[in-house]
Amino acid sequence: MWGLSETSWKGGDLTGRVALVTGGNAGMGFAVAEQLAVHGAKVYMAARSESKAGHAIRQYQQLHGLGAKGSITWLPLDLSSVKDVRRAVEQLRSLEQKLDILVNSAGQMMADYALSEDQLEMSVSVNHMGHFALTTMLLPLLRNATGEDTGDVRVVTISSGIHSKISRKDLGGSWDMDRTFASDAGHVNSLRAKVLRYAYSKLLNILFATELQRRCDRESIPIISMSINPGLVATDGALELYPTWLRGALKAVGRTPLQGANAALFAAIAPEVGLKRAQYRGSYLNSRGEVDRASDIASDAQLAAELWEVSKMIVSKDLGNEDRSEKLTPASPHF
Ligand SMILES: NC(=O)c1ccc[n+]([C@@H]2O[C@H](COP(=O)([O-])OP(=O)(O)OC[C@H]3O[C@@H](n4cnc5c(N)ncnc54)[C@H](OP(=O)(O)O)[C@@H]3O)[C@@H](O)[C@H]2O)c1
C-alpha cells in the first residue's frame, strides 16, 4: 500500500537505488531523504552547511537506528554558485555510476533582495539556476540509471502554487534573471516584491521541469520529470515567514513536513507513476499527488524552450573558459 501513516511513508523496497535530495537537511527535503533511506535507497543529502547536514543525519539515525535499510551521506552543495554545483557533480560522479532519483527541494522563500556570485537574483539563482545546472550536469548519471533493470528514473522539482501570481505582463517579454519586481529601488524588499521574486522562481521551476521532459522525450531518454505544488506546509523555513506569535498556532494546525512531502515522495517512488508514464510525464502535481493544471504561462511550451536556452547560456558563461570538459556543461549541445 502507498501513502502516509503518522510517521512514515508506506512504500516499496528501494535497495540498490541511488538518490540525491537538495535541501535534504531541512523541511520537506529532509522528509523525502529520510523516507527514501528508510525504504533502502542510498541517499545523498545535498546541503551547503556541514553542521546542518550532520545534525540532520544524526536525527535520521536517532529516529531509525542502525536497522534502517538505506543510508544518508552529506554531499556539499551551494546552489547559489554554478561553480559549486559543478564541483558537487564532479564529487558525485567520482562516487557513483548512476542516479535513479533526483529531488530538487531546496529553496529560498521570499528572501530580501540579494545577488548571487553569478550576479543573478538570489531566488532565481538558488531555486532555478542551481537546479537547472545540477540536473543537466547530472544527466549522464540519470541516463545510466535508465539502463538498469527497473529503468525507472525520476526527476522531481518542488515548485509552488504561488507561481500563478506571475502574469505575462510581469514577464515583460524578456528573461531577466536579476528582476527585483519592485516599483522603485526603495521598494526592493516590500512584501509584494519578495512574493513576486519567489513566485517567478517557482514559475521557472515548472517551465524547467516540463522542458526537461520534452527534451528527454525528444532524445528517447526514458526519464520522468515532474513538478510539485506541496501546498502550505509548516516547515521551519515557511514558519519564519510569519510573525513569531503566530508560529506556534500555525505549527499546531499546519501540515507536517512529512505530510508536505507526500506528493514529492509519490512522484519520486510510487510504482503508479512508472506504470502510467503518459499520464505523469512532464506533469504538475498538487499536494495529493494528483495531476493538476499549472498557470497558462507555466504551460507555455515556447516560454519553456526559451528559458532552457537562456539558462544554458548563463550556466556556460558562469563556468567560463575554465570548463574544458564537454561532459560537465549543461547536457549535450543538442539537448
Ligand atoms: N513550506 C511551504 O509551505 C512550501 C509551499 C510551497 C512550496 N514550497 C517549496 O518547497 C521546497 C522546500 O521547502 P521547505 O518549506 O521544506 O523549506 P525549508 O524548510 O526552508 O528548507 C529549505 C532548504 O533549502 C536549502 N537551501 C537554501 N538555500 C540553499 C543554497 N544556496 N544551496 C543549497 N541549499 C539551500 C536550505 O538549506 P539551509 O538549511 O542551509 O538554509 C534548506 O535545506 C522549496 O523549494 C519551497 O519553495 C514550500
TrEMBL record:
InterPro entries hit by this protein: NAD(P)-bd_dom_sf, SDR_fam
Statement: the UniProt record of this protein carries the keyword Oxidoreductase: yes
Cross-referenced Gene3D superfamilies: NAD(P)-binding Rossmann-like Domain
Coiled coil residues, start to end: none
Transmembrane annotation, as ranges: none
Keywords (A to Z) from UniProt: NADP, Oxidoreductase
Protein origin, superkingdom: Eukaryota
Record family assignment: Belongs to the short-chain dehydrogenases/reductases (SDR) family.
Name of protein: Short-chain dehydrogenase
